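Worked Example 4.2. Consider the chain below.
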Amino acid sequence: MTPTRSPTLSLRARGPLACFTRPELKAERVSYPVPTPSASRGILEAVLWKPGMRWVIETIAVLAPIRYVGLRRNEVNVKAPRPKRTVVDDGGAAPVLYADEHRAQRNTVFLRDVDYVIGAHIRLTDKAGPGDNLTKFVDMFERRVRKGQCFHRPYLGCRELAAEVLPADDTCKPIDDDQDLGLMLWDIDYGAKGNRALFYRATMTRGVINVPAEPDVALEVA
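Applying the procedure from the previous section yields the following structure tokens:
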């Protein structure tokens, strides 16, 4: 019988700053106390991603005490305008965004000195080709983690907050802390009829959050 999922794989991610933004606080970012499953999946996908596979997060272990730090940063209020198709096809002057004209100062509440172990498994998707299999993907992941390779720099919630990624070993001990973290973002469901924010009820037991396979609550995104 062909297996439908890989064994549980682990990866350690740490860094000086992290921000897993609470969606209800957009004007000035405030981080959840622990990573969201979607942010954790993004770290794994930075190391290994193929169309024929998907990551399913199982556990998030917190290795360092949860501590916050507030910083004020300059941000830009708008996105750079997309050039018109005629400019792309025929050339010409592309639209320009001057950051000085759209700059604003905002406070951000970061997590500081973070350290996590993410446990997850791989499932094949309907885009898997004849040469794709779980054993191949597991070997690729373990080799890339061991060598420190990645497709792009893994980050801790925001792209400017780079993560150091390394193998998880027996020295990785979760903190001895229990917390009811309430509703946390599980993922975003992007659909043709609109987007939905998916949430789950997160509980940390002895430093470990067990992530359910399905969300508990779905809310429409305006």
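The chain has a mean pLDDT of 90. Residues 200 and 216 are 5 Å apart (CA to CA). Compare this with Example 4.1 before moving on.
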